[in-house]
């Protein structure tokens, strides 16, 4: 493995973090879904590159799963759900976008501060990759916390999972069985959440989570 | 006997525990059939007697030089096997536990028929016995804790067997909370030890050298865990609630035997597993002080209480104080290198455990018979039972004399040895101990004196005078099983008092095994007199006193027979010239305790009396209201319970957050932890 290999690996992982930031400032629903697809494509590129430099063919399968499921099927399905349900097309955020971006920058800094010394003994590929992966996970969580709309929470959850896959592949790859089962569990989570969206919508005429709280007799 | 023989004995003992567990399972199968309890209790008698015999054989073999052996059962937790086996200490306590259990189970053959809901007691009783035996057999931390918790839970089930009484349910809750707290401390204790030893087997723990500070911390945890089970002040609060709530044969076992299992556990920890070394001096001093506080507190509370079973339960607390005081003296002497005095202290603790088990079981069995015969529990509702229930009276009288430490009974021997150990303390080179031990010795003396008052009161109010209630006036003697079992326990008190060498001899094997030093056997001479320390000039021979007392009493009886008139005349009791010869004009339990209550009540129990005298001409009755408080309950337990309730109330908010808030909490927790990790590096 040459220095160039590392640089490209870091470039692709950094791209994933960048796309995570892009997810944070989207205020239109379809744009959000498109950026999410982009996120998955970036992930599959990063994983594919890891497969190449690690000579680990099973990682290609991982990359393919990421590309088909997360880059294609899930965004398209979410797209159709949004259309079918007539969900409000703008993304309601909690707190301003600027504030969220600042918090995101803080989280990336935090994950680098945490990860670099901790993984100093690990392999050099793992080091930065793990820091980037943790950033992606934290940004996904941040997105789930700062969005009111159920669809954007789903997107936050999926991007979080992308971060986990990145971390796993960076750490010398994970067994294919694990990867496939994680992929399937994500798919099942997506189904469940999708069904819930329909149910919530049926009952409350909206997928704004505030309506759920109101039905419990509480006000924000 | 070779090691293989001891191994086989241990295997048989493990089989005995299994048999007890099987009996617990068999009990529900027998259902509500008549006589089911007789089958179960008779089987318990047989298994317990067999276990006691096995334990005695093992102890004798170990005393003859055979090494202790361990049986490894393949069953157990994933982290290891179950190691079972008696060493000298375990075997000695197994004799105590199973011997008393056999007698008490025989008592239950008769007593048990008065139980209304048999199935609430029968399955748990053998399981409770199995739990206690498992604790004594355990040779690794896991099986010890399993046995300990098993013992706690099954005894809890027995405490709440009469669950329709709200008081019993409350007792059960308090007991459960305290038992869990105690087990938690033991868990942490074993965690500390196993962390250093790298394993959970007692052999591994013994082999590992413990840093002094860790040893002291571990021993404090052990003290909290075992003290809460034994009823050490201020962890005693559950005991006077729970012991009386159970059926009387279970009370006899909980008070007489289960507290001894806790004493066993403490001896195992302090003298075998986690030797405190140099920290023994202040730990010993602390233990002596706790023991003195426990003894004084327990005996004064017993004096105030009028419910007979609660009196006995408080008296158990007192005796546990004496035992732990003796253990504290042992630790102190051992840390200063006084081998002979340390041996005396440990002998005292062990002997008093044995003696207390005998007398307290006799007393609780007698109390159970009284409750069955009269349906009453308050001392003020008894009276005049000596004539109506002669056999129970005899057992209670011997038990009361023994626990009041009158020679030639067994209570005197161990308390006398305790004071001999206290008197050896001025030789200690430590000013703290020289100051604390005699002061606590004075407290022990006070406790012993007040204990005499407690039992004079219990016997005098309960059995003498005239019946104070209609049910006491019609009481009849209980069945042969119950009264004989109580008499057997009482006979044990006499035998152990007249011939203490019977118990001290086997206990010396234990002391020698635990203290690793040349221990001086206090029994000496052809007449087996007790000479506690070669330096002290005092000695005691129970047999001489028994013979003297028997001879002088026989002479007096003969003289009375020969010189007095032989005619027997029964007449109404003299009424002191009052026109109304109502039994209520007799001394009551409260009036007997009044002088001592006046002295100690206001300071120790925040006791208050309010007398309302109606003015002359007013037809209302005069009233007297007495209230007293359990201060540790008020200032320790209640604030703790209220704190928990307050926190639970505040945390209730967490159940009603929005989804986003829950996510936010996860997120915040994650980020906080990451920040901590970042700051750490």
Instruction: Report the order of strands and helices of chain B.
Output: HHEEHHHHHHHHHHHHHHHHHHEEHHEEHH
- What is the domain total for the residues of chain B? 4
* Portion of residues within helices of chain A: over 70%
- Cα shape of chain A: globular
Largest interface in this structure = A-B, 21 and 15 residues
* Global mean pLDDT of chain B: 86
Secondary structure: number of strands of chain A: 0
Largest sheet of chain A: none
Helix/strand/pairing class of chain B, anyone? mainly alpha
First-residue to last-residue Cα separation of chain B: 61 Å
Q: Please, what is the oligomeric state?
A: heterodimer
Shape of chain B: globular
The helicity of chain B comes to: over 70%
Strand content of chain A: under 5%
Give a verbal description of the structure:
The complex is a heterodimer of chains A (220) and B (681). With 220 residues, chain A is an all-alpha fold. Chain A has one domain (3-215). Chain A has 8 helices and no strands. In chain A, helix 1 runs parallel beside helix 5 (124-146) and helix 5 (124-146) packs antiparallel against helix 6 (150-170). The model of chain A has no long low-confidence stretch (mean pLDDT 78). Chain B is mainly α. Chain B folds into 4 domains: 1-275, no CATH class; 278-557, no CATH class; 587-627, no CATH class; 635-680. Chain B has a two-stranded antiparallel sheet. Chain B is globular. The A-B interface holds A 94, 107, 110-111, 113-114, 117-118, 138, 141-142, 144-145, 148, 209-210, 212-213, 216, 218, 220 and B 656, 658-660, 663-664, 666-667, 670-671, 674-675, 677-678, 681.
Write the layout of secondary structure elements.
The complex is a heterodimer of chains A (220) and B (681).
Chain A: H1 3-24, H2 29-54, H3 58-85, H4 97-118, H5 124-146, H6 150-170, H7 176-204, H8 209-215
Chain B: H1 3-30, H2 36-63, E1 71-73, E2 82-84, H3 88-111, H4 124-137, H5 141-159, H6 166-197, H7 202-207, H8 212-230, H9 239-245, H10 248-273, H11 280-304, H12 308-335, H13 339-374, H14 385-388, H15 390-403, H16 410-423, H17 431-463, H18 470-473, H19 480-498, H20 501-515, E3 523-524, E4 529-530, H21 542-563, H22 589-605, E5 608-612, E6 623-627, H23 631-651, H24 659-680
Antiparallel strand pairs in B: 1-2, 3-4, 5-6
Helix pairs in contact in B: 1-2, 1-4, 2-3, 3-4, 3-10, 3-13, 3-19, 4-5, 4-10, 5-6, 6-8, 6-9, 8-10, 9-10, 9-12, 10-12, 10-13, 11-12, 11-17, 11-22, 12-13, 12-16, 12-17, 13-15, 13-16, 13-19, 13-20, 15-17, 15-19, 16-17, 16-19
